[in-house]
Amino acid sequence: MATKKTKNARAAEPLPKNAVRNCSDRPMPSGNPYKPAVATVTEVIHETAAIKTLRVVLDDPAVMAAFHYEPGQVGQLSVFGVGESTFVINSPPSQKKYLQFSVMQAGEVTAAIHRLTTGDKVGVRAPLGNFFPWRDWRGKNIFFVGGGIGIAPLRVIMLHLLERMADYGKISLLYGARSPRDMAYSYEIEGWLHNHDLDCTLCIDAPFEGWRHKVGLIPNVLLNLAPDPTNCIAVLCGPPIMIKFTLQALEKLGFLPENIVTTLEKRMKCGIGICGRCNIGGRYICIDGPVFTLKQLQALPQEL
Amino acid sequence: MSTIRILASDGLPAFLSFLSQKHQRVLVPVVKSANKRSVIFEPWRAGMPVVLEKATVPPKEAVLPQCETLLTYKKSKNQEDLGDITVSLDDTPEALSTAIFACRPCDARGFRVLDRPFLNGLFPDPYYKARRESLTVFTITCSSGCNTCFCHWVGGGPSSPEGSDVLMTKIEEALMLQAISPAGEALLKDCDLPDGRDIFPRAEAARKAAWASLAPAPDLKQAPQKIAALFGNDDFWQSQTSGCLSCGACTYLCPACYCFNITDEGDGFGVHGGRRLRSWDNCMSSLFTHEASGHNPRMLKTPRMRNRVSHKFSTYPENWGTFSCNGCGRCISNCPVSLDIRAIVLAALDNAG
Ligand SMILES: Cc1cc2nc3c(=O)[nH]c(=O)nc-3n(C[C@H](O)[C@H](O)[C@H](O)COP(=O)(O)OP(=O)(O)OC[C@H]3O[C@@H](n4cnc5c(N)ncnc54)[C@H](O)[C@@H]3O)c2cc1C
Ligand code: SF4
Ligand code: SF4
Ligand code: FES
């Protein structure tokens, strides 16, 4: 993996008819797409009992300096000897010093990632996948809804938009977690609450001593907040069950499917559209996604 | 007219020896007698008996080995500071220049099915590419189909040249060799076999007779849409899947299946380092899509069969304009419960919905 280039998808054979391969002009790794760049962990942040944030720097300074990605793109992070897993790069592209990944412990690779400390070596194959179509959102209000580790992809796109506030209307965030202890980026949240450009609401599932914010499940809190769907894009990320009920809430509020954006998760291996396991019908989450509008998802076979 | 040569049966060892000079390995069909007689491709060595039969296992390994090293990673400690570890990577593809001698037209078309995702997608696969570019395919046309063959339903046929560099047809005890690609042309020009243009009409007649021996093919043009439309029809898929054992024999023996897994082996310390391996995977296994959270979009065998059949007859065609099944029939003849993919496709076509 060396410097990045932008490449047009599928020049060789015609694009499929019902293409949802949006964002086909995307930053992509060049060279052998299976070969990771070796990187060094420079910082590990304990977010919650289950989530750690890693900051990594690519060892080749030239590659690090040229590294370019769009908000929402992911990386395959590897612990050599254990394997690879997919995580969104959640630091904003303007931040050039390191790449940040927030990892929830789930199975083998994520457990090994949680054992890493400063100075350890990892592999990074990035940037992969499509990204949030933020250029198309200019002039609109944006309403972010994040649950659990879903706050990671929202963090990067939200910080990216906040840097370009003049181009957007009102930006809001509803972030929910099971309890205050399950909230990642707690050290940043105070800043988000006081940021005049951001309307930030926090919620937890059940009452908790000293909690000054909302209590309730995300879809219900959302229905109470009742954001105006006019000229508004809703962006939601979180566990499948939260996505399911939040989509219903958004539709109830009058959001159109083309104005609802989400990211999908599927088991992945190659991350480059070949190994064949992350498909929904003829689409592959790793290259056609992970970012989709609800309208695009509705056109696909219902196999989530 | 392309170059045509004639290879007498007693000239076969000399010709294979000629091919061995041009390639690092020549894969030929040989008989393996385990508990069941089977024919597989093996690297040719002088004196090896070659059988010109259709192989039990297709020669897919030539471009996509069952297991290969994508990467070796070597970790070394700084003796002054043991916490300071450096990692070096080697991603040189394992690629031997290869000639396949005497595969069938359906096998050769299998390489074309693999070529599209591996070479023409968003990311070309460098390992596949290295092997594919140094591959020469000698295909022998079939004199008749067997009861599980249906190559002519899916765009092929007993003398289809697609994917072949040289097409060979048996005439009595000799083989007629016809160059198809520039690589095949160059090889035949270079070898010292005699010219075979005068027997070309006899080969043509044999190929026509093979075609004529096949039962008429059903029209599968509507298959992609029909199968896509059946996605939500659980009854249909359940009725088509009930006997399946999820053993995966159908995927491992298919020349057009290409799903794979990537795993690491070894911690990377030590002289040889560790290896990141790619190995064939099997979409009929429930683990294939099992996510860390426990969620699994294809937990049951029914959606897995739906995915396999849809990939071959609906979604691959949607992406690449052609079926990813070549009608070789191996998944039918090797299925322990005799499931027949033809029957599933025909049932989908017949379905009123
Ligand atoms: C586009 C995308 C973005 C993601 N972003 C994040 C993120 O920012 N933070 C985070 O904590 N998690 C994220 N995930 C989920 C994360 O990839 C999985 O939790 C992780 O792969 C589990 O790996 P494991 O080895 O610990 O689990 P195991 O169960 O041991 O899995 C073995 C292998 O299966 C694959 N696998 C299993 N589950 C998943 C899954 N849900 N998604 C993809 N591959 C899987 C991986 O290749 C993994 O190495 C994302 C997933 C996708 C698809
Ligand atoms: S070979 Fe037959 S039983 Fe085995 S997975 Fe395939 S269809 Fe099922
Ligand atoms: S699906 Fe069956 S018949 Fe079709 S190419 Fe594969 S093994 Fe052969
Ligand atoms: S992860 Fe391999 S095809 Fe998507």
Tell me what the structure shows:
The complex is a heterodimer of chains A (304) and B (353). Chain A has 304 residues and is of the alpha/beta class. Chain A has two domains: 5-128, Elongation Factor Tu (Ef-tu), domain 3 (Beta Barrel); 134-263, Rossmann fold. Chain A is 21% helix and 30% strand. Chain A is built from eight helices and 17 strands. In chain A, the strands form four sheets. A seven-stranded mixed sheet of chain A has the order 12-11-10-9-13-14-17, with helices on both faces. In chain A, strand 15 (279-280) and strand 16 form a beta hairpin. In chain A, helix 5 packs parallel to helix 6. In chain A, 47% of the residues are buried. Chain B has eleven helices and eleven strands. Chain B has helices spanning 12-22, 105-119, 126-133, 182-190, 200-212, 223-229, 234-241, 249-252, 301-320, 330-333, 341-350; strands at 4-8, 25-33, 37-43, 67-78, 81-90, 98-103, 135-140, 166-171, 174-179, 260-265, 274-280. Chain B has 353 residues and is an alpha/beta fold. In chain B, helix 6 (223-229) crosses helix 9 and helix 7 (234-241) packs across helix 9. The longest helix of chain B is centred in the last third of the chain and has 20 residues, at 301-320. Chain B has one domain. At the A-B interface, loops of A face strand 4, strand 5, helix 2, strand 10 and helix 9 of B. The complex binds flavin-adenine dinucleotide, iron/sulfur cluster (2 copies) and FE2/S2 (inorganic) cluster (FES). Residues 268-271, 273-278, 284, 286 of chain A line the site of FE2/S2 (inorganic) cluster.
